[in-house]
Specification:
By secondary structure, the protein is an alpha+beta fold. The strands form two sheets. The chain has a six-stranded antiparallel beta sheet with strand order 3-8-4-5-6-7. It starts with a helix and ends in a 7-residue tail after the last strand.
Length: 239
């Protein structure tokens, strides 16, 4: 009898050992199926690299015609910009972070922006056109273009506006000029302020009395309401 029990126990143990792997097999996660290339959405940088803004300018004019318009604007507006001196309602400070230039920005435009950025924090002075004394808005722009690329621009923002080639806002590039109507009611009156476009909606300029050269955003309410347009000096037309 004891012998039969021993054999029965041995048979039971053998059956358990035979079935054990079924329970002891390790669990493994089913590998995720990789999405097909047709369903993958390209990332933002990939989209940007494929985006090519229109290269054609919205308007062009013969240099002689532009020069004549600029001279007339000089005569009517006076030698300096007066309307940006008070800056009623203008923000007291600019943006904290400066946009980076795209890799495909031309060397000429990089030189312009580099020169402009070196002049940050220089104080506003009405009629100023030199870093040793200070800048008004048009004096700052004239100094940057003269010393960075050797281009002499007209003497005030109104004349610089009529001398440039029109650029759609969506086609602006670093170094293009951005203009504002800061006198009188919002967005009305003549052009009275100018800055240099950097990238991603930012521009650098000499704002008004009591302020210094700084970077601002076109999306700020003050500037958005007074934006008059963008122009491209002739030297940048092919850059």
């Amino acid at each position: 009898m004891p012998t039969k029990r021993i054999f029965a126990a041995a048979a039971l143990a053998g059956a358990l050992l035979t079935s054990l792997p079924l329970f002891a097999e390790p669990l493994t996660a089913t590998p995720a199926t990789a999405p097909s290339s047709a369903t993958v959405t390209p990332n933002l940088m990939g989209q940007l690299s494929l985006f090519s803004p229109a290269a054609m300018l919205a308007q062009s004019a013969a240099p002689a015609q532009l020069a004549a318009k600029a001279a007339a604007a000089d005569k009517s507006a006076g030698a300096v910009d007066e309307d940006d001196a008070d800056g009623d309602g203008m923000p007291d400070s600019g943006v904290s972070a400066v946009a980076a230039l795209a890799n495909d920005t031309s060397d000429l435009r990089k030189t312009l922006i580099g020169m402009a950025m070196q002049l940050r924090d220089i104080r506003y002075v009405r009629g100023g056109h030199d870093p040793s004394t200070g800048f008004d808005c048009s004096g700052f722009v004239r100094y940057v273009f003269a010393h960075a690329v050797g281009l002499e621009l007209p003497t005030n923002s109104a004349s610089q506006f009529v001398a440039g080639l029109n650029v759609n806002r969506g086609d602006m590039k670093p170094g293009d000029l951005v203009f504002f109507r800061t006198a009188g009611k919002r967005g009305q009156g003549r052009v009275s302020h100018v800055g240099i476009y950097i990238a991603n909606g930012q521009f650098i300029h000499s704002p008004s009395r009591g302020k210094t050269v700084r970077v601002d955003s076109l999306d700020q309410s003050y500037w958005a309401q007074r934006f008059a347009g963008a122009k491209r000096p002739g030297a940048l037309a092919r850059s």
